[in-house]
Amino acid sequence: MNDLKFISGDEAFAEGVRLARPQVISAYPITPQTIVVERLAEMVEAAELDSQFIHVESEHSAMMSAMGASAMGVRAFTATSSQGLLYMAECLYYVSGGRFPIVMMNANRATALPWSIYSDQRDSLSQLDSGWIQIYVEDAQEALDMAVQAFALAEKETVRLPVMVNLDGFIVTHTYEPVSIPTQESIDRFLPPRSTWDKLDIENPVSMAFTVGPELNEEFNLLHHKASLNALKEIETIDSEYKEIVGRGYGGALKMYKTDDAEYVLIALGSINALVREEVDRLRSEGIRAGSIAIRMMRPFPTEELAGALKNAKAIGVLDKDISFGYEGTVYTNVNSALVKKGINIASYNFICGIGGRDISPRDIGQCFETVIEGKESKHIKFIGSEVWDDV
Amino acid sequence: MKEITWFGRGGQGAFTASRILGAAAMTKGYKSIAFPSFGPERRGAPIRAFTKISAGPVTDRSVIEKSDYIIVLDDTLYDEKMPKLLKEGGRILINTLKPASFFKDERVLAKDISTIAVKHLKRPIVNIAILGLLIDLDKDIDLESVISAVNGYISPKIAEKNIDLLKEVIESLNNQTTEF
């Protein structure tokens, strides 16, 4: 097991990017993403990675430089977090609408105000409509593996969309753990260099990033939407190809745990799912049919898969590390919409937790399950672990 | 699961040591994670770091509430309430110039590592050396795995000096035992 390294999520992601051999990296540092940018800069400096590293003056420029590179037909990478993501928001729509298969790592961090460098998921969830594919990982190993898989998914002919891979800030980005690093040879086999017809080429001039009037604009949106939906199946295909070569796989858009006969299911994004699964085991040992669903892909949203996994559910709870003020958690909104479309009418609770870096303890998860199982709570949206009395 | 909380001040290497311990456990086939109390880093400010070691995957990434071991690099961070943060059978390992009798609680293992550290490093940096106390107490952590972690994750410039220092700490513990 000498391929095991004790590294952080940020470092693991940087290793994944190195193995994917992007020709252009443009990024602006922001906590808790900084280490990714630092490591990649070091790798380029040490000639371990043959890539143009562009030091830009802002996130806005980081994304636009990556788009320029991608338009030339090369593989491009950037990374950001929180306010940085919001600052580049305008460019996110350019890149997805232009169908540039850039991969970006986002370190999930709270948005100001109040100012905070700690983790929650409002930054990326606020950009669900930006047209990007969004993936959420649980730990450093999955971060590395999805860094590689994200390029394969983004560049897939049926998809051709940018992919944002989200790591919970600090909880994943800054936590050190054993990570198995695949060989360059195996990743080269999995992910050949990017090859595309869709690029700027002096021999075959084309117009890119153009204007479209009302007569065809909706059609472009429809094509974008269909391409995004294609990612639901493609992520499974790509993952099984990856597993064949590297020996590790994650499945598809959802990670189901003991959902086959589950009556009470908690649904969440990212690192908290490991703890939810442990709580499922504890409840199962007491004879309660609990289950867990990790949503690995928020866009496109896996409606059919989710409904299928909840066929025996009596009640569910959705953990949300964000709140759309004045309504509810955004993951909750998405889950409920999927249930309505599939005619599933069960009790559904929303637990707002982990905001601004608040720890979520096993006890908290236990209480969420308790609320779902008892079904007596009249309020559907609850703040968990809050210092102030939630009597709203 | 074995849970270790580190108390130190910014610049004393508590987080580095928490990672070395995690990496040492990894070389023995354990799953482990290490992380600091997150936040802006300032030299001299109190910080905590955490190592969790388990036979299976570590699922709980929240901060440790009750520890098997609390390791204190700087005795000004110790207070009498600290033993309440221990699990049953837990121990506090503390670097101090004070005599062991100063610490009334029998769960405290106090040792002056700073003096030995100055000999080797010219500075009272004890983050790696204090692992000698843990190696002495805990069957899951041994000198060999810590040395391999130090060589793997600390710059060669200071790795060797720290290993010599660590060995001397362990040696002095052995001598101490025979004296009693």
- Helix count of chain B equals 5
Helix content of chain B: 25-40%
* Shape category of chain A: globular
Strand order of the largest sheet of chain A: 3-2-4-5-7-6-12
Q: Would you count the extended β strands of chain B for me?
A: 6
Helix-strand blueprint:
The complex is a heterodimer of chains A (392) and B (180).
Chain A: E1 4-8, H1 9-20, E2 24-27, H2 34-45, E3 52-55, H3 59-71, E4 76-81, H4 82-87, H5 89-97, E5 103-108, H6 122-125, E6 133-136, H7 140-155, E7 163-168, E8 176-180, H8 184-190, H9 217-246, E9 254-257, E10 264-268, H10 273-285, E11 290-295, E12 297-299, H11 303-309, E13 315-320, H12 330-341, E14 347-352, H13 362-374, E15 381-383
Parallel strand pairs in A: 2-3, 2-4, 4-5, 5-7, 6-7, 10-11, 10-13, 13-14, 14-15
Antiparallel strand pairs in A: 1-8, 6-12, 9-11
Chain B: E1 2-9, H1 14-27, E2 31-36, E3 46-54, E4 67-72, E5 86-95, E6 108-111, H2 114-121, H3 131-137, H4 143-153, H5 156-179
Parallel strand pairs in B: 1-4, 4-5, 5-6
Antiparallel strand pairs in B: 1-3, 2-3
Task: Fill in the keyword field for this structure.
heterodimer; A: 392 residues; alpha/beta; Rossmann fold; 2 domains; six-stranded mixed beta sheet; 13 helices; 15 strands; globular; B: 180 residues; Pyruvate-ferredoxin Oxidoreductase, domain 3; 5 helices; 24% strand
Architecture overview:
The complex is a heterodimer of chains A (392) and B (180). In chain A, the strands form 3 sheets. Chain A has a 7-stranded mixed beta sheet with strand order 3-2-4-5-7-6-12, sandwiched between helices. In chain A, strands 9-11-10-13-14-15 form a 6-stranded mixed beta sheet, sandwiched between helices. Chain A is globular, with a radius of gyration of 21 Å. In chain A, helix 1 (9-20) runs parallel beside helix 7 (140-155) and helix 3 (59-71) packs parallel to helix 5. Chain A folds into 2 domains: 4-246, Rossmann fold (3-Layer(aba) Sandwich); 254-383, Rossmann fold (3-Layer(aba) Sandwich), CATH 3.40.50.920. In chain A, 39% of the residues lie in helices and 19% in strands. By secondary structure, chain A is an alpha/beta fold. A 6-stranded mixed beta sheet of chain B has the order 2-3-1-4-5-6, covered by helices on one side. Chain B is globular. Chain B has helices at residues 14-27, 114-121, 131-137, 143-153, 156-179; strands spanning 2-9, 31-36, 46-54, 67-72, 86-95, 108-111. In chain B, helix 1 (14-27) crosses helix 4 (143-153). Chain B has one domain (2-179): 3-Layer(aba) Sandwich (Pyruvate-ferredoxin Oxidoreductase, domain 3). Chain B starts with a strand and ends with a helix. Chain B has 180 residues and is an alpha/beta fold. Classes of the chains: A alpha/beta (392), B alpha/beta (180).
